[in-house]
Amino acid sequence: QGRDSSTNEKGASALLTIDVSKEAGGEAFQVRVLQQKEPMHFLSIFGGKIVIHRGKMPAGNTSVSPSPSSGGKKMTLFDIRYMRDDDECIELGELQENGGKLGKRLRAVECAEANIQYFNSNHCMVLFASGIVSVTKKATAFIFVWMGRYSTSQEQDMARDMTESLIKLYGKTKNSVEVTQVNDGKEPDDLFKILNMNKSAID
C-alpha cells in the first residue's frame, strides 16, 4: 500500500486480496505490505528491485509525465538504494534464496522534488528532465545518472538500467534523450543549470 494512498484505496485493496485468496481455494497466504517496508519475498517477485513513483497513474494511460517544475521544465528525481528490513543503506552480500539463486534488495523511490539536497554519497540518483532546450537541438530530454562515491555496485547497475525504463515510461525515444553518467564530486555545470542551483550547494 502506497504511503499516500487513501483509506478507501487501502480498504479496496484488502477486499480484493480476500477475493483473490478465495479464487485460489483459500490457500493463499495474505500479507499486508507497506511502502518502503517491502519484505524480501515480495521483492523477489520483481527480481529483487522495484521503482516507486509519486502520485497516481491516470486511468487508461500507459505513460506518465514527469513532475512539473518552474520555468516550464519537468523533472523527476529518484533515490536508489540497497536496503535491509530497517531501511538502512548498507553494503550487503547478495542474499541466498529460491533454491540457491542470489536475491537483490534494491529500491528506487521518487523524491518529493528535484533538488540537489537529496543527493547522498551513499546512494545513486537518477534525474529525468524535459522541457529544456539542448545546445545541440537534438535532445528534448535529459537523464543524469549520478553515482555516489560510497554507493554499491548493485545500486549503480540499477541506476544505469533505469534509463531505458524511464525513456519508455515518459513516452520518449532513445534518440531524443541525452543520457549522462555523473560521478560524485565531478558534476558538470549542465546538471546545476537544469536544477537551477549553484554548484556551491553541495560543496
Q: What's a quick, concise take on this entry?
A:
The chain has 203 residues and is α/β, with parallel strands linked by helices. Helices cover 23% and strands 22% of the residues. The protein has helices at 7-23, 40-45, 153-169, 189-195; strands at 49-52, 74-82, 95-97, 101-103, 106-110, 124-130, 141-147, 177-183.
Q: Can you give a write-up of this model?
A:
By secondary structure, the protein is of the alpha/beta class. It has helices at 7-23, 40-45, 153-169, 189-195, and strands at 49-52, 74-82, 95-97, 101-103, 106-110, 124-130, 141-147, 177-183. The strands form 2 sheets. A 6-stranded mixed β-sheet has the order 1-5-2-6-7-8, covered by helices on one side. A hairpin with a 3-residue loop joins strand 3 (95-97) and strand 4 (101-103). The two termini are 37 Å apart.
Features of the shown structure:
two-stranded antiparallel sheet, 8 strands, alpha/beta, six-stranded mixed beta sheet, 203 residues, single chain
Describe how the helices and strands are arranged.
Blueprint: H1 7-23, H2 40-45, E1 49-52, E2 74-82, E3 95-97, E4 101-103, E5 106-110, E6 124-130, E7 141-147, H3 153-169, E8 177-183, H4 189-195
Parallel strand pairs: 1-5, 7-8
Antiparallel strand pairs: 2-5, 2-6, 3-4, 6-7
